[in-house]
Amino acid sequence: MLQARYDSSRLPGKALLPIGHLPMVVLAAKRIMRSGISLVVATSSEGADDAIVQVCDAAKVPVFRGPLQDVYQRFIGATADLNDDASIVRLTADNVFPDAELVQEVVDRLNAMNGSYLCPRWPEDGLPYGVVAEAFRLGALRQARPESREDAEHVTAALRRRAGNSGFGTELTLSYLRATVDTADDYSRVTQVFDGVDDPVTIGWRQLCHRLDALPAVRVPCAHKAGRLQSQLTLGSAQFGMPYGVANATGVPSPGEIARIIHAAIDHGVTHVDTARLYGESEVRIGAALAGRWRSRVHVITKLGLIQTDDVTLARAAAAESVARSLKALGGERVETLLLHRAADRTRAGGVIWDALLDLRQQGLVGRLGISVQNREEFDRAAGDPDVELIQMPFNLLDRRWERLAPMRDNLTIHTRSVFLQGLLTDMPAARWPVVTGFDAAGLVEQLRRLALQLGRHTVADLAVAFVRAQSWVDSLVIGVETEAQFSENLGRFAGPPLSPAEVETVKRHLPLLPDQLLDPAQWKFQ
């Protein structure tokens, strides 16, 4: 079953755009049908989809038409003559990488496990985003009737909740790539993959993946801000120096893996790495990874060490010593960006700490100065200080503390952390969420999954990144990782578009206001 429609909010008419000299829907169908697999294009009865029917008829590709929004009923109607034990594979016309070989592999795996549903998972299974084929038993689909309009639109949502998904492991580690066609940039990329291919119908899906990987490197979106190039993704490094986050399952990565992560980030366009004196050995390990030619290719942001004295002389000396230790650990000639780790240090000891940093900036040992804030009061105070050039703040799709921010001045850059709320927003089961009186973790987890599905995002983590990227006042997202695979997953989340303004409002409308005890990890309690 190949799902197709003409209308598309981001790329209208994309199902008919040519790839390999064929309309996309025809190419997708013929790649599946080449080994004799029985295929039906499931489109709607709307007049706009007459064009899809015409090109399919000309190419001798069978078509079934049904409701526009209730795609589930299209599938049920198109398979009415089949028995419950029939194997059905769901594909979409904007994904032309899947072929007969992939379909057979997925069905064989479904048969071997004697299950009712199986689908490659992104990013866990290592395939590029868009290389997907959902296999299931028809009887299981008939029993898993939609519970909402969103379920009906996405066909298998209720079935996945009921049956689960063990995934489809492969030897590939290409989840940072994007193979679907959802935007004009996507279309350009996929047409490049097929350029020069003698037969776009018979080329194997793995070969296409490798051709996609061979294109110029996928790069994180960048923009110029306050005279500097700033990537939308900033590599966080708390995990490089200590076990960090409730979702951390691997501990501190080795120096070798840290170097590979940092080098991959630089190669893919990341312009900044974020660290701190308080992140254990993070600064030292970053300094080692940047030895040689790497040091000039990325800027490091670090944060002042903990200063616990109000004595003017001692506080000033402590600030200078912290910067000196950072310089020694990182190995550079100056700290490109230095933040106060605690906003209270801005006025501690009569403001002498901040004065010391201004002096170091004057001497050229420090570039930009900024503040890491925890709450709205600290943010507003920092944003009003012309000497503050960067603010790092917690923000994610659950956090409504930052509504109605004043317009930012041109020389102020905003970085957000806690995009995944220490891992809670990475599809973490409700049982592992902190305990807050009166808070229904299971209900929120289910609502997040439904929203991700409704808005075309494969995971809650993908939705979380797309939501923060959609905020016009956010310049970069600080996201830390423990493994190379996690970096690849995050890179893939920046390959597609952020949420639209309407989609952002949908998220806000469907999610409840949450207590500070949940938004602030310092207040978390667990059973």
Write up this protein.
By secondary structure, the protein is of the alpha/beta class. Helices cover 37% and strands 14% of the residues. It has 20 helices and 18 strands. The chain has helices spanning 24-33, 50-58, 71-78, 100-113, 138-143, 149-154, 157-163, 184-194, 205-214, 238-241, 255-267, 282-289, 312-330, 352-363, 376-383, 441-454, 460-469, 484-493, 501-510, 516-519; strands at residues 2-3, 18-19, 22-23, 41-44, 63-66, 87-92, 117-118, 134-137, 222-225, 228-231, 233-236, 272-274, 299-303, 335-340, 366-372, 390-394, 413-417, 476-480. It has an eight-stranded parallel beta barrel with strand order 11-12-13-14-15-16-17-18, surrounded by five helices. A hairpin with a 2-residue loop joins strand 9 (222-225) and strand 10 (228-231). Helix 13 packs across helix 14. The longest helix is centred in the middle third of the chain and has 19 residues, at 312-330. It is elongated. It starts with a strand and ends in an 8-residue tail after the last helix. 45% of the residues are buried.
Q: Can you summarize this structure?
A:
Helix content is about 35%, strand content about 15%. It is α/β, with parallel strands linked by helices and about 525 residues long.
